[in-house]
Write a structure and sequence with these properties.
mainly alpha; Hypothetical protein af1432; elongated; 2 strands; two-stranded antiparallel ribbon; about 300 residues
């Protein structure tokens, strides 16, 4: 089973394997069930360029009507209007991933983010895989809920709305640039809220994965159990992955140092019960953490 398969294990239908393809969205558009990927991509574009969906609907409707007059045969081809309730149909998005049919919209969104921020998909696979494993230990009931894999994969989808000059900057961000980056949870919420076929868990993780147990996180300064459990679990995994992989502003740290920092932040940044489950999962005994190393857990 690939990492992406594992991440989607709790994300939706687990049937046939296939390359990322098309998948339906509640925007100001009327789409059939097979159109979710197209709608998801339109929602992402709308986030960066408000008004895109209204424009797309106008020109698509006009073009389909013109096609039915100019070339009735073309109008009947796959992707054309098959009934009164469908105006825009599906299109393929290709990535080196294999997903089930019910995961096409999620794959399309990841493809769009990968296009803007190369490496996103590899990161999403790693953290989703680890977060699902941690969830099975920290909360077996939550691990069985539909949509959890989607939630973990799409955690940073709001970064689609962050300007390239900041998102792709190879150096440390300035305080003002960091304030812009910290908009991505709310931007992501705005996006996934449009996609009503996604599980509420997606909104929980996308919007709250940078909140802190002590209430000093963002964007809402939620604290303790007021932070959705899936977001509390994901926060630990995301921080560990950030520390142990290369960042533009620093080299990766050893796993042992990263684990010590996670433990040190138990009860402040992280839910203590989730940290305990994480340390148990990786086989680390409780111990006193060494002196922290600067900004290892600097959020982004």
């Amino acid at each position: 089973m690939t990492q992406m398969h594992l991440a989607l294990r709790a994300g939706g239908p687990k049937n046939a394997e296939m390359s990322i393809s098309a998948a339906a969205v509640r925007l100001p558009l009327r789409l059939g069930d097979g159109d979710r990927a197209v709608a998801a991509l339109l929602a992402a574009l709308e986030l960066r360029h408000p008004g895109t969906c209204r424009h797309a609907e106008r020109v698509a409707d006009l073009a389909l009507n013109l096609t039915s007059i100019a070339s009735p045969e073309l109008a009947l081809q796959e992707g054309g209007p098959k009934n009164a309730e469908m105006s825009i149909s599906a299109a393929a998005v290709r990535l080196p991933l294999r997903l089930g049919d019910g995961d096409r919209a999620v794959a399309a969104l990841l493809a769009a983010l990968e296009l803007r921020h190369p490496g996103t998909c590899r990161h999403a696979e790693r953290v989703a895989d680890l977060a699902l494993n941690l969830t099975s230990i920290a909360s077996p009931e939550l691990a069985l809920q539909e949509g959890l894999g989607h939630a973990y994969l799409l955690h940073d989808i709001g970064k689609i709305g962050i300007p390239d000059a900041i998102l792709l900057k190879p150096d440390r961000l300035t305080p003002s640039e960091m304030r812009v980056v910290r908009r991505h949870p709310r931007l992501g919420e705005d996006l996934v809220r449009r996609l009503r076929f996604l599980s509420p868990l997606v909104r929980d993780v996308v919007g709250c994965h940078h909140e802190r147990w002590d209430g000093c996180g963002y964007p809402r300064q939620l604290a303790g159990p007021n932070i959705p459990l899936a977001a509390r679990i994901f926060a630990v995994v995301d921080a560990f992955d950030a520390m142990t992989h290369l960042r533009p502003y620093r080299e990766p740290v050893a796993a042992e140092d990263a684990l010590a920092e996670v433990e040190r932040c138990s009860g402040t940044q992280f839910d203590p019960s989730v940290v305990a489950a994480f340390l148990s999962m990786v086989g680390v005994a409780r111990r006193v953490a060494p002196t922290p190393r600067g900004d290892l857990l600097r959020p982004a």
